[in-house]
Amino acid sequence: MAFQDHEILETLRMFELETLDIRTTTLGISLFDCADPDLESAAEKVYSKVVHHARDLVAVARSIESDFGVPIVNKRIAVTPISWVAAASGAEDLTPFARAMDAAAKQVGVDFIGGFSAYIYKGLTHADRAVLESVPSALAATDHVCASLALASTRAGINMNAVARFSEIVLETAARTREHGGLGCAKLVCFANAVEDNPFVAGAHLGVGEAETVLNVGVSGPGVVRSALARLDGDQDLLAVAETIKRTAFKITRMGELVGREAARRLGTTFGIVDVSLAPTPAEGDSVSDILELIGVDRTGAPGTTAALALLTDAVKKGGAMASSSVGGLSGAFIPVSEDSGMIAAVRDGALSLAKLEAMTAVCSVGLDMVAVPGDTRADVIAGIIADELAIGMVNHKTTAVRIIPVPGKVAGETVEWGGLLGTAIVQDPGAFGCRRLFERAGRIPAPLQSYRN
Questions:
Q1: How far is CA 44 from CA 100, 148, 221, 309, 349, in A?
Q2: I want to staple 380 with a disulfide (CB 3.0 to 4.6 A). Which of 57, 142, 235, 439 is the partner?
Q3: What percentage of residues in the chain have a pLDDT greater than 70?
Q4: Are 276 and 331 in contact (CB under 8 A)?
Q5: Burial label, 442 (beta-carbon count in 10 A; 0-12, 13-18, 19+)
Q6: Measured between alpha carbons, how far is 76 from 421 in angstroms, rounded to an integer?
Q7: What is the C-alpha to C-alpha distance for residues 225 and 218, in angstroms, rounded to an integer?
Q8: Count of CB atoms within 10 A of residue 45's CB?
Q9: Rounded to an integer, what distance in angstroms lies between the CA atom of residue 154 and that of residue 193?
Q10: Measured between alpha carbons, how far is residue 375 from residues 302, 365, 388 in Å?
């Protein structure tokens, strides 16, 4: 892969002026060989293996930052879903695994470790149930651990029993982390069609088809796309807009793959994928919302927003696919409400509602992300929000997710500050009505007809 002088200078401008960064280098580590009938022995094996393989991750990332001049914002670890590792122990409380993961993350100096996870879209094993029930205590007892549950898929349908219980788990987790604005829920997500090479938290984990260790990279460049569109002649049509985004995503992807392959080489591991996701931050100019408004909507959430987001997501994916054969993860455009300064402003101005956000998730990379709701929101309302989002993913063969945060003591319209990349959230109104009868029916929503592909 050869780089021309003008490409290097252009990339330097992206770093210096347009907030381009490598959002994360995420080292995936298989923990299958850590299974042990003794819970404490298994947890010790998890700690030892993570520390052994990730001990140089932060140093390597810093060396690449120094050598290439590329900012790497987060260094993360993703492990085999703990339900698969913990099954041999038969334990009911899997908090010791979370503590071991957290201790390992602190020892090697990473920002987050994902994989306190289970796949329960059709049913629950003993270990799956143990993971689910352990989530509130695990997230309250740790600083760096992230949890994820796969509750639905196109091939299996939606496990509404699991959705109902998960909604209660969300409320329990918020209560356990009340002093920090329900922060535990910011490290908890549920999925339809979960991705097993996702480098982004809270859903990062290592799937069954992966190598012993693998280095995945997540690249983020909303500021770069925003600047490219700002330089575009305002009279250009939407095909020109899409082409500009595609070309910009192409350049971002090439940079991401270069960093990913070099990081994997220095770590002595396998390079996996580059996830080209426009993942915003609270910083000014690093907003997906700003891009949508440059495309042509008055305010994010106004009529036309979903169409603009569809154009953006598709162009990013096309640019990535042109640049690399290793594009994966959740590539596209993220819309985490609290992490995007433009989205925050749109909610504050009354332009962006929870209902409009749901519509936008039909065409974005993931789903309802970092959405704050009142702390007294009922479990059936949360379950309904989750089920609606999972249904979008199930029917459309795409990954959708929900990271919802009931903020204890807060009501609609109030603000909660989490700081850092998690940003600021305005508590949104989920409405006066719920789905109590649907919640009580439970069972499973069957897979759609289009699931029968062979």
A1: 7, 22, 39, 45, 50
A2: 439
A3: 95
A4: yes
A5: middle
A6: 14
A7: 16
A8: 18
A9: 7
A10: 27, 27, 20
Left, alpha or beta for 284 (phi > 0: left; psi -120 to 50: alpha)?
beta
Task: Determine the pLDDT at residue 49.
Answer: 98
For residue 202, cis peptide bond before it (omega within 30 degrees of 0): yes
Backbone angles phi, psi at 423, to 5 degrees: 70, -145
Kindly state the average pLDDT of the residues 139-156: 97
Closest CA to 361 of 327, 319, 323, 333: 333
Strand 270-278 relative to strand 213-220, pairing: parallel
User: Considering the entire predicted model, what is its pTM?
Assistant: 0.93
Phi, psi for 68 (deg, rounded to 5): -100, -15
23 in helix, strand or coil?
strand
CA 288, 4, 214, 112 dihedral sign is negative
Number of H helices, E strands in the chain: 15, 14
Euclidean distance between CA atoms 119 and 83, whole angstroms: 8
Rounded to whole angstroms, how far apart are CA atoms 440 and 427?
27
pLDDT at 255: 86
Give the domain 1-444 fold. Anaerobic Ribonucleotide-triphosphate Reductase Large Chain (3.20.70)
Instruction: Give residues with Cβ within 8 angstroms of 235, minimum separation 6.
Output: none
Token look-up 């392959």 returns 261
DSSP 8-state symbol, 336: B
The residue to which tokens 């002093």 are assigned: 179
Give how far Cα 21 sits from Cα of 68, 90, 229, Å: 12, 43, 18
Amino acid at 55: R
The C-alpha atoms of residue 298 and residue 279 are separated, in whole angstroms, by 21
